[in-house]
Design goal:
This protein is of the alpha/beta class. Helix 3 packs across helix 4 and helix 4 crosses helix 5. Helices cover 40% and strands 17% of the residues.
Amino acid sequence: MVLQAALVDSHCHLDFDDFAEDREAVLARARAAGVEHLLIAAVTPSHWSRVQALAAEQAGIWAAAGVHPNEDPASTPELEVLLDALAAPKVVATGETGLDYFRSEGDLSWQRRRFALHIAAARQSRKPLIVHTRAAAADTLELLRSEGARDVGGVIHCFTEDWDFARAAMDLGFYISLSGIVTFKKSTELQEVAKKIPADRLLIETDAPYLAPVPQRGRRNEPAYVVHVAEFLAQLRREDPQALVAQTYTNFFRCFPAAGVAA
């Protein structure tokens, strides 16, 4: 199927070394697939300048500044340092950030403090949050509520939670972004959630280089493959693919209004 509507990959890591040798070719394939915009989310302060530089180089590339929850506690920036990064040109979001109790062990109070710091920075900068959550659903929602994330909103990226979580997040003003995981044969519970997400709250992403969707599963993921997520979701939700892609395009700029201002 050839999609005529412009695509957005709302979350990828094109700054990673996985793309060091063929980044320009990856971008060319994305453009050829109809991907007009993509958002590169930094996961550690040492990558902030990378994502800013990539965004500065080409139209349609946007950046986010944050620290992934599994990064070392010593990676936590001071609030003013994070705010400076968020003020850079074409940085449209705060993240990725959040909680991940699956890959980190022991006393994880430092993760919660760091997540709260990011929420404070998002509120001050008016740059919406990109939230990663894994095995930490209750604490993620509690912090979003208690720290006032409703004031700025954002997206729950690479969504794998249940419908109750999705509904609670949307009640706080968040969008739900689905990745290649939704195309996996065993993702039946997630697919049921995907059917229920209101069209005006849906985003699509690759999370490249991870989680390549069917039929590319097992390969290094890349932004061009977001087309497979879109096509799968359209079939799953019994929607016109062009309409779904157009809606997710609109949703991206509603979620990240700074991208619309700078486009």
